[in-house]
Amino acid sequence: QFEVSNAVIGKIAQLGSASGIWNVKALLLLAKNYYALEDSFQAVFVLESVIENFDTYPNQIEEAESLLELYAVNEKLETDEN
Q1: pLDDT at site 9
Q2: For the CA atoms of 39, 2, 15, 51, what is the dihedral angle to 10 degrees?
């Protein structure tokens, strides 16, 4: 249901203000969905966007940084296995 979730997140982004807490939370969920769909490029792009554009939400920035680090470690492990 990740793709359905991504569609709902898109609607949230259209309805909410560009800098609202719900948008940043929706973007974090979007990044998690992309990663679950094995699209790490999009996941990393979304996380970097959150880090760069939502400095008024330090807890969400911290979560984005943690996810970015986790995804980078997992990608390196997968690359090393291949």
Answers
A1: 84
A2: -40
Q: CA 28 to CA 23: how far, in whole Å?
A: 9
User: Using one digit for the tens of pLDDT, what is the confidence trace for 47-67?
Assistant: 999 999 999 999 999 999 999
Tally of CB atoms within 10 A around 75: 15
pTM to 2 decimal places: 0.82
34-65 burial, b at 16+ Cβ within 10 Å, e below that, comes to bbeeeebeebbebbeebeeebeebeebbebbe
Query: CA torsion, points 53, 20, 56, 39, in degrees to nearest 10?
Result: -40
